[in-house]
Specification:
This protein folds into 4 domains: 1-229, no CATH class; 234-288; 302-360; 368-515, Histidine kinase-like ATPase, C-terminal domain (Heat Shock Protein 90, 2-Layer Sandwich), CATH 3.30.565.10. The chain is 58% helix and 16% strand. The chain has helices spanning 2-9, 14-63, 65-70, 73-84, 147-153, 175-227, 239-300, 302-325, 329-360, 372-389, 409-425, 456-459, 483-493; strands at 89-96, 102-107, 124-129, 132-141, 163-173, 368-371, 393-398, 404-407, 431-438, 442-449, 497-502, 508-515. The protein has a 5-stranded antiparallel sheet with strand order 2-1-5-4-3. The protein has a 5-stranded mixed sheet with strand order 7-9-10-12-11, covered by helices on one side. A two-stranded antiparallel ribbon has the order 6-8.
Length: 521
């Protein structure tokens, strides 16, 4: 499993993998064949030489029967010389029946000590070393010898069986066997190497020729990928390769058709996009022009819009004084309603005008040095009446009463009033507080309430213009939805930011973070 996975994920080509597998298989096959052949031939050579040694020893044993019976060393010497004359015979000797008396010896090699096996009918190897075999064969008087012959030869008489006269021993050299086996091993190895090289070369040439169409197909695919052009392959080679090339060419034709269609659609879409873009540019320019004109108009109309409302408020105060002198409390209540609505209308007009000025870029920043104790005092004059409407408790915690802060006083106070006013409006029978603290680089104003709170979804749009938390027709809280938007724009003009932390039903904390300016320059 691991081998197959390695081959599948290998960086080698399929041709290289196939050649490697085939050549490896040939090498393994030839190695195994050479080993088996060498082993078989060496074993056969050993058996042949042993057979030759047995035949020589048995021949000496047969030729030694008469010399041992007659005690004739001359006849035994003749047989010994014949045996010593063989190439691989190192030495030979005849032992009598007692295994201790040596009848005759030939050759100059020394015999090793070895036990002679009695009552054997054939030659045996009784000792062996890397250099020789010691082969022993019994010298036996055959049973077909007559009683008269036995008497004439002086042998003790017996009527049946065979008589052991002694032993013939031959010390047979292995030198020829070793040389023959070395020649055989070398020859087989040489033949194996030549066969491996020849077969590998032939198979390499055949596999290269076989895989050449696959290489051409791979090069064609790589060229198509590099140039992104529809390059077609030749449909040649084996059946499978022709089918692959045919499928690739069909894919190229389909891709070419799709590309033509996509090009046509792209051209059409580009023309439509150009038309729509021109229309959108014109609409955007018209909208920007209208918005700029609107902002400029509203910014320029600040005096005209504020004057009537302020006149209404002024005349309302005069009428209130007259009604109070006449003790006309019924009309005085009505005039209070008129005054409150006029004040609300003035606040909305001021918000709209402030927003218009910011959008028109006409809202300038007027940096002055302000004492934070004065800011706290002004807020105590404005916020408590707003908090008391919903029966809320209001307090300010400041650690910077003596701090001189450089900023736009009007924008800072309007921002804090907007945030505190919202906190008072959305909190009933609760707590509204302002905490002022200073760090090394920033001045932070945290407005905290225990009101209705904001959900995560509501926090995403509360700073958008004209967006309100309660926007239904039967909404409980009034307002234009501009307070937070204007506050955020004012804070951004002053180089700061507003952060919010809130959970639905758990109140909210709005924190204004402003940089500390060192001077008015």
């Amino acid at each position: 499993m691991k081998l197959s996975t390695h081959l599948i994920t290998s960086k080698l080509s399929i041709k290289s993998q196939a050649i490697a597998i085939v050549i490896t298989g040939i090498i393994l096959m030839m190695v195994i064949l050479s080993l088996v052949t060498t082993q078989a031939v060496n074993q056969q050579s050993r058996q042949l030489m042993l057979k030759n040694a047995f035949q020589i020893t048995q021949g000496l044993a047969k030729q030694s029967v008469f010399p041992i019976l007659s005690g004739s060393n001359q006849n035994a010497q003749s047989a010994m010389e014949q045996v010593i004359g063989f190439q691989s015979v190192m030495a030979a000797r005849l032992l009598l029946e007692d295994e201790q008396s040596e009848f005759i010896r030939g050759g100059h090699a020394e015999f090793p000590n070895a036990n002679v096996h009695r009552k054997t009918e054939q030659a045996e190897v009784i000792a062996e070393s890397p250099a020789y075999w010691l082969v022993t064969a019994p010298v036996i008087l055959e049973s077909d010898v007559s009683d008269d012959d036995e008497f004439e030869l002086g042998v003790s008489s017996y009527t049946q069986g065979e008589k052991l006269l002694g032993y013939a021993q031959v010390l047979y050299s292995k030198q020829n066997l070793v040389q023959a086996q070395t020649r055989i091993n070398f020859t087989i190895s040489l033949i194996g190497i030549i066969s491996v090289c020849t077969l590998s070369l032939l198979l390499y040439i055949a596999l290269v020729k076989l895989f050449r169409p696959l290489d051409n197909l791979a090069q064609t695919m790589a060229l198509a990928q590099e140039t992104t052009e529809h390059t077609y392959a030749e449909e040649v080679g084996a059946k499978e390769l022709r089918e692959m090339a045919y499928s690739y060419n069909n894919m190229m034709r389909v891709l070419e058709q799709h590309e033509d269609k996509l090009t046509l659609h792209r051209d059409v879409l580009e023309k439509e996009v150009q038309i729509r873009t021109r229309e959108l540019v014109q609409a955007r320019d018209s909208a920007l022009t209208a918005s700029r004109h609107k902002s400029e108009f509203m910014a320029n109309m600040s005096h005209e819009l504020r004057t009537p409302i302020q006149s209404i408020l002024g005349y309302g105060e005069l009428i209130n004084e007259s009604l109070m002198l006449e003790d006309n409390f019924e009309l005085l209540d009505d005039m209070d309603k008129i005054t409150k609505n006029a004040e609300r209308l003035l606040i909305m007009i001021n918000n709209l005008l402030d927003l218009a000025k910011i959008e028109a870029g006409k809202h300038d920043i007027n940096l002055v040095e302000i004492n934070m104790e004065k800011v706290v005092s002004d807020l105590y004059d404005v916020i408590p009446p707003l908090a008391s409407k919903n029966n809320n408790q209001f307090q300010i915690e400041s650690s910077v009463d003596d701090f001189i802060f450089v900023t736009d006083k009007d924008k800072l106070e309007q921002t804090l009033i907007n945030l505190l006013g919202n906190a008072c409006k959305f909190t009933e029978n609760g707590q509204v507080s302002l905490a002022i603290r200073k760090t090394s680089q920033h001045l932070k104003f945290s407005v905290k309430d225990t009101g209705i709170g904001l959900s995560q979804a509501q926090q995403k749009f509360i700073f958008e213009e004209f967006r309100q938390v309660d926007s239904g027709q039967n909404r409980k809280f009034s307002g234009t939805g501009l307070g937070l938007a204007i506050s955020q724009k004012f804070v951004e003009l002053l180089g700061g930011r507003i952060e919010i932390k809130s959970e639905l039903g758990q109140g909210a904390v709005f924190t204004v973070i402003l940089p500390i300016n060192k001077s008015l320059n």
